[in-house]
């Protein structure tokens, strides 16, 4: 380890670097010169204190910085080790999503492009399953410099997220109450959906029945369900909530409202088979806009947040680490399906 200590002493001569930056740069230089290789053990905190005279918290901060880049890993009671020799990495980011829906694909692609190649992004999916959610967080705990999480909206999920330091956590998509100072860029569903439905009142009243497809045991937001019920009661709309769509059951003069896309594609297919005209014979309204909905059948009307903008703001949080608490607005994108 004498070469590492020599590197640190050389770094001390660069007065523009903080002490923790001097340690980080010395370790990176030692890796680049091949004095440190993957699997090599770094000096213990006590050894570093004795050799270079820096405070323990300074050394810990340097090691944690390198852990965040994936270059260093810690093993319980065994110390710190070189895990990766790619010194160009700025940060390792864990991105935990519900599933790879089209709108979340839009989020990922924009997020990936904005951060660039020096950021390593590993993507995980929990599929709204709390056991999967817990297992993923357990496996990735302490291995990343930043955690970007679309959470399950339950108390248990909140308790699990509390174990991540607030400065390393960004909650996206769904808001979840957490104690302390944490950042989020999320949607609000209930008021946003209700307000957009009111704008569509004249079109909605053209149809005999307004049907929402909603499953309470999935990632369908409860806020959409609440907004739907509030709206139909206030304006005396004949309506119904269905858990699933039965093949071939699409009927004229109904307006169908979708949160996820699975049943949307089935109804559009069945409508084509029956020669129904979308926007005349039946109405279609969906959550979460994407390029396909913009194009098919003359365009599907959507209530949606801008996932690309959410991704850009999330990437900026990762790069600049400025705390943020933001609810993304939802927009009504009116097309020919109503």
UniProtKB/TrEMBL annotation:
InterPro entries: Peripla_BP_I, Tscrpt_reg_HTH_GntR, WH-like_DNA-bd_sf, WH_DNA-bd_sf
Protein name: GntR family transcriptional regulator
Domain HTH gntR-type: 17-85
UniProtKB keywords: DNA-binding, Transcription, Transcription regulation
Matching CDD domains: WHTH_GntR
Presence of the UniProt keyword Transcription regulation in the record: yes
Originating species: Flavivirga algicola
Pfam families in the record: GntR (PF00392)
Source species, domain of life: Bacteria
